[in-house]
Amino acid sequence: MKASQFFISTLKEAPAEAEIISHQLMMRAGLIKRIGSGIYSYMPIGLRSVRKVEQIVREEMNKAGAMELLMPAVQPAELWQESGRWEQYGPELLRLKDRHNRDFVVGPTHEEVITDLIRRDVKSYKQLPVNMYQIQTKFRDEIRPRFGVMRGREFIMKDAYSFDKDVDGMKASYDKMFNAYTAIFKRLGLNFRAVAADNGSIGGDGSHEFHVIAETGEDDIVYNPNSDYAANIEAAEAVALIAERAAPTQTLTKTHTPSKGKCEDVAEFLGVPLDKNVKSIVLAVDIENQEDDSATQIFLVLLRADHTLNEIKVSKLAGLSNYRMATEAEIATAFNTTPGYIGPVATAQKVTIIADKTVANMSDFICGANEVDYHHVGVNWGRDLPEPDLIADVRNVVAGDPAPDGNGTVGICRGIEVGHVFQLGTKYSEAMKATFLGENGKPQPFVMGCYGIGITRILGAAIEQNFDAKGILWPQSIAPFEVVICPVGADKSEVVREEADKLYHSLIQAGVDVIIDDRGERPGVMFADWELIGVPHRLTIGDRGLKEGLVEYQNRRDTEATKVPVLEIHAHVLAQMSVA
Amino acid sequence: MKASQFFISTLKEAPAEAEIISHQLMMRAGLIKRIGSGIYSYMPIGLRSVRKVEQIVREEMNKAGAMELLMPAVQPAELWQESGRWEQYGPELLRLKDRHNRDFVVGPTHEEVITDLIRRDVKSYKQLPVNMYQIQTKFRDEIRPRFGVMRGREFIMKDAYSFDKDVDGMKASYDKMFNAYTAIFKRLGLNFRAVAADNGSIGGDGSHEFHVIAETGEDDIVYNPNSDYAANIEAAEAVALIAERAAPTQTLTKTHTPSKGKCEDVAEFLGVPLDKNVKSIVLAVDIENQEDDSATQIFLVLLRADHTLNEIKVSKLAGLSNYRMATEAEIATAFNTTPGYIGPVATAQKVTIIADKTVANMSDFICGANEVDYHHVGVNWGRDLPEPDLIADVRNVVAGDPAPDGNGTVGICRGIEVGHVFQLGTKYSEAMKATFLGENGKPQPFVMGCYGIGITRILGAAIEQNFDAKGILWPQSIAPFEVVICPVGADKSEVVREEADKLYHSLIQAGVDVIIDDRGERPGVMFADWELIGVPHRLTIGDRGLKEGLVEYQNRRDTEATKVPVLEIHAHVLAQMSVA
């Protein structure tokens, strides 16, 4: 490849709209150009990295026995009506009408299309399992597209779908995909974690997200530095921090806490640690009821004061899937007080008390007294109030919590989701009446899994994890070029041209993806461009060095260049590449 | 590749909607599945052929110095408003609104996006020429999608755009693309012709279509079997069939031709050849005129009776771009007669007479006498009526016409358009104010070319040209697999399994794209499937043959199989492949 053929247009400054480093660097390096909000063109250099990611994904998917197909981007609405998502999916679904006024969508995902294909062609359990994938442009009409390719509207995704005859089969297909994803992200050269994720109604090990670890990530990941355990904070189990409830040592005392409506203020005022306090959160669930259509059930959730509520966990408790925060009026009725002084002792009205696992084992704790400016001190379960109606994990994990796998304590890091494997079960096959004849001769719904990788998002995530002040630090496997040769003063020196050309061809012969900068730019411009673009290995060939028989090698991650004898440079580059 | 991993689902009958052979065979072979009107999924086997076409196109484009990029499928309407096509483009343009009610299109083509990209980044003539291409899914909302991938709504296209500083540069870029296309269609193994096409206002050699020759083609192509000359009938030059006008030999005679309103009837009635007759066609052009807004100009076009009008050629004559057929009332006013008896001699009103080149050189001809049931016989230009106001080529070429390149006569065949190269000039750069600084330091519009190949359409066209009663006859370069191995009775015979496996691996080692049919189907089913799918080379390994040390080789285009010694079969297949 010759730089003069490429469309190299780097910028000193990123456009103001680029808020995060990957967006800034991709714009500055000229990898992408903005066409509209959340819509980009991939320029020749950027597309090279996209294609390398695609190829690694494709090879590992094929190796895992998945078959590549290509489904349409524009899909008939009928399929979405069948699955129910035509109604359920929000405005992210780009809907449109064709010239005959028929409804279509620009596909954000393809569960409906693949389920339709499989139900038409797979008639018997003997044809199962089937796993099909595609690499395709999708559209999701984000309300606020930003961060470049990290949250664009149009993006490239690899989406795979497995069809099995039973749950065991689905789990085997899932494991294959889990392993393929692990192989993919290793080959991509990224620091990543497979993270147990919330997966709606299926439970168990039914869903993992693959996260690239980066400080700028949007998701909190709970991980065990001593094991493979990792989970999205939404799904990570928070264990009880107190193993067993201690016997009461204090008497219940209603204490004046004037204007101390926050746990932190109460703790300071009373001179006790924050973790002796219990926080009260009041939730409401509106119950549809034929006789009385305005019935509302009130729940009091109790957390230790230094913990925070995990809304996903709460919503999975029986009867709480549609919970909302209670209004001040509802609180006044149920507790006869105002927020800040609510507590579980002697409520004005019967409420359901849900204690977090840690709170359930607390003794001599402090909580609101259901009277303005008063708290109870020395509260004890069983003595001062009945045992909780429900004990459950309803809080977010914090760093230092014991690991759920029993192996030390967890840390929390931030990650960027780039892949997701998901046990779908029969959600789509039942809705769309997609069945096969089982071994018993009876029709059964396919048991499905789905598996996504954000191809273009990986570019952004890789950069968030790999950059410095000068630009991108591509992992070698997805760099637009592996090696760049910068001839200095080639216009004036025949020998520089010759040596550069010789090296260029010898590296091509060796199968290296090499580009030579034949634009005739000054060294400073060449170096700055290639450092910004992030090519992992650079060779500088100039008259001065050649007089001593030397060429400069610089690894993009090193601060200094190394002088290498001309005769050894070819081998030196290959050696550097093999350890990258 | 193993057949059991693939999703092989062939059909005995094509669905009723499949009207043409390529559509029928692609459906029967399971290469595509219909998702909606003009919208298909490419199944694993079909996608393999798509990818092979793409790869050949990509390699030749790269070789020609074009750079691959990827532009968005969903494009902001603003760009189309700038170019004027938001208004000009009909309902084929799939328009839509996003959640913020902004207008977008699903791109049928990308002139606007690429012109926008280039105007932002290319500032100087020094950066030119630039040629960029993409391989991408497009959407064109055809009013009546049909013929499978031949006229679908969603399809894959390779579109390239060149930007030059001047017309000479554009022509050089165009020639490069013309040559690249020639190389592409040769490598695809298709019988094709580069055909001079009508190209609107640019004229000259500004546009060529690449046609796959097939009887089922929609376009008539005029070609010279003795040279490279070929042109779409819309654009093919029709020369004068009479080199020089002969002197009159007959006197003008008004002749009674009762109820003979057609040239054929007149010729038969008078006992003269049809080519002594002249056909009159009356056209009208409405002229906008500030004083009299209903002015209409009447044109009388004269063709030899055995010729047909070429509407494209007529519309390019000065003042005729908006012509229409004259009404009977207009004919009555201008000629004082009814259709069937119109002629150029003594018209009732002044009309502009356009004679086709051949008619202009006729003498002693026959035409309508502007009186019902009467024709003139022995008409001669200059003597019986003034010379024509305009002599022009306004007819369609017919087979046997002299070739415009002077080398023998032309034939007419039918073709399927699969590629188009086009000199755009400054149409888009001027509309979108896309300029660069020229050598004179002044802003100048880019001079553009555009170059399209219908990737998915090529599959259909290749089949229209290559099929038999059993199925598809893929050219080897784009067959989903090059070789299929069919082991017969593998379930019962260890030696069959071993030999098949050995051959399979030896061919893979040799770089052959081979599939082994491990489905355990009967020979008849295997053969029928692979003949339908169209794999070019088949090897059959069975116990009976192996006892004699023989394996069967069958070329998909041969009627008989050949028995080949086991030891020679590897070399035999490679030899057969090298001549394919």
Topology of helices and strands:
Two copies of one chain form a homodimer.
Chain A: H1 21-28, E1 32-36, E2 39-42, H2 44-63, E3 67-68, E4 74-76, H3 77-83, H4 85-88, E5 94-97, E6 103-106, H5 111-121, E7 130-139, E8 154-164, H6 167-187, E9 192-196, E10 207-213, E11 219-223, E12 230-232, E13 253-256, H7 263-270, E14 278-286, E15 296-304, H8 311-315, E16 324-325, H9 328-335, E17 352-356, H10 357-360, E18 365-371, E19 374-379, E20 390-392, E21 411-425, H11 427-431, E22 435-437, E23 443-445, E24 447-454, H12 455-465, E25 467-468, E26 471-472, E27 483-488, H13 494-509, E28 514-516, H14 523-533, E29 537-542, H15 543-547, E30 550-555, E31 562-565, H16 566-579
Parallel strand pairs in A: 3-7, 15-17, 17-20, 27-28, 27-29
Antiparallel strand pairs in A: 1-2, 4-6, 5-6, 7-8, 8-24, 9-10, 10-21, 11-12, 11-21, 13-19, 14-15, 14-16, 18-19, 21-24, 22-23, 25-26, 29-30, 30-31
Helix pairs in contact in A: 1-12, 2-6, 2-12
